[in-house]
Amino acid sequence: MPDHHPGVSVSGSNRPRFHFTPTSGWINDPYGVTWHDGRYHLFFQHLPGQVSWAPEQHWGHAVSDDLLRWTEHEVVLSPDDIDGGIWSGSVVRTDSGDGRMFYTAVRVDHPQIGVVRAARPADPSWNVWHKEATVAAPPEGLRLAAFRDPYVLHDGHQWRMLVGAGTPDGTALALSWTSPDLDTWSYVGVLASRPSSSVDPVWTGTVWECPQLFQVGSAWVLVVSVWAEHQTRYEAYAVGDLVDGKFMPRAWRRLTYGPGHYAGSAFTDNDGRPCLLHWLRDVVDPERGWAGAHSVSHVLSLQGDRLLAEPHPVVAFAAEPLPPGTARRIGRANLQLDDDVLAVEIDSQRWTMPCRGGPVRLLVDGPVVEIFGPEGVAAFAVGPRTDPALSTGSPSVRAART
């Protein structure tokens, strides 16, 4: 399949140059970015042959030498008689180089509550994977409204798995399992939770999708994708400490603004930098048979208890400063940056992002805009308007992912 090269537009298409898009079909959540055998491997939610979301998800696969030029490979996991849909998860690589996938297996008629299954690569190329047994399921005695999106990491002592969840009373959860060997897993309780009644300083919804736990320096960071009322909302995070298997947040903050970023996936690049990669909603070209895009890689750092994101060095050349007082039109969007607030209006819809205390950078890539500020990041599509039913961020599609 063709590479997506920076600086080269796909002839006759509305594709971005620096943001990964599928050759055809639908994509959403990215995950499992791993440096293996001299290149990066990316996995993602994928529906071949259609441009709207459905629960019968597959796992797509692409590779890159530099996090910028991606070559799409064949699908690595598909639904079968056991797995009605292959939903989001993660990939880890052991010190010996062995790979392991952990994914959400769902029933199409009841996708809210999944189970976690594992898979192993059949060869060093990671192009073929074999499914294995279920390794985690909703804990007995815990009433849940949602259970999905395993994220596996080594916490310095043992392997740890987080699974996103929510209770019927509106409490969002990150549940936790531990393992000495990636084969045998023990449920160890709730890693973190927050009720939907808590709104100060940011509301974090009724379900946490795609929980990501990682270190930036000596601090632990928990990033969650906020879900509520059958809609994907935004990403939030807390900086804190991991104490006896519990995440102790210092303060919750909002990470993403606008209709773009969701389902952030944490990884470490080959130079040891902590990074996030996000799904970009609303980037579609149904006439040419593809829908969905991923952000550029974001490099993370901390300023006190605030998480800062910048474009990865491989794409930083494409980002320009956006000084205070700027008023600019990009495609269908009008941007206005005052001293401490960025305001964006697209098709009569207006939203803002706080920008106090630091520089703002703008990355325009064909139909995609990403903005990096001192208090968060924003993304939105500025390409031609499309049928709302095909939009990755439309209420009808969001409602389907319940």
Automatic annotation (TrEMBL):
SUPFAM superfamilies from the UniProt entry: Arabinanase/levansucrase/invertase
Keyword Transcription: no
Top-level enzyme category: hydrolase
Record keyword Hydrolase present: yes
An MF annotation (GO) of this entry: beta-fructofuranosidase activity
Pfam family, one: Glyco_hydro_32N
Protein name: beta-fructofuranosidase
Ranges where the Glycosyl hydrolase family 32 N-terminal domain occurs: 19-311
InterPro entries in the record: GH32_Enzymes, Glyco_hydro_32, Glyco_hydro_32_N, Glyco_hydro_beta-prop_sf
Record keywords: Glycosidase, Hydrolase
Entry EC no(s): 3.2.1.26
Family according to the record: Belongs to the glycosyl hydrolase 32 family.
Domain of life: Bacteria
Signal peptide: none
Species whose genome carries this gene: Nocardioides gansuensis
GO biological process assignments: carbohydrate metabolic process
